[in-house]
Amino acid sequence: xxxLVVGAGSxxxxxxxxxxxxxxATLAFTDLDADAARRAADAVGGRAVxxxxxxxxxxxxxxxxxxxxxxxxxxxxxxxxxxxxxVTGSMAGPLAAMETAAPDVGRASLxxxxxxxxxxxxxxxxxxAGGDAVDVVLGAIAAAGNETFETTAAEHDEAMETVQxxxxxxxxxxxxxxxxVPDRFHTPVSGGLADLVGQVTxxxxxxxxxxxxxxxxxxxxxxxxxxxxxxxxxxxxxxxxDLS
Length: 244
Known about the structure:
NAD(P)-bd_dom_sf, Prephenate dehydrogenase/arogenate dehydrogenase family protein, alpha/beta, Rossmann fold, prephenate dehydrogenase (NADP+) activity, 10 helices
């Protein structure tokens, strides 16, 4: 299998490495940053190709930031002879773009629900048009120890409002509001929150910004926090018991 990975960041490298190890794929990387493509090719194995390549590939995987995913799919999906996939993090828009740009090949949107350094983990999958090439890719991901599960684009994108946009907003809001206190004062709850703050703020700020821009969820967290802050004892008790 000959695979083009569009996007030389950590997720593109994860996808390429997975196919290299578990599908015996031959890899090519492309990126608007040609040096990044060369570094990815050197690190994972394969070759770097220019961003305006006219080569054709069995499989094209788009692994770019969410705000530019549909544009990249429109540009590179026609280069696929068997299948086009994305690992960008949203699903409805990319799947629609794939159907438009490559209606006659296999199409799937994958969302690894983890940072690549934390692999393996759960991988959400929407198979819009199946086929042998899509099966090989999904088989390689499973062989790497990941748990794949089929969903729908609507179900996935709605879930991301809670598990990504809302969860990140809640953790970051706590980080913004919390005072710096000595470790000896931390409770199990506050200590756990501090650990989550470290996990979230240890990532890529641009990735987290893209999530907030793409998915709703932060406003709901802000409204809930205001409801708690404004509650009197009786109202708070009722809220607490409802949540319990």
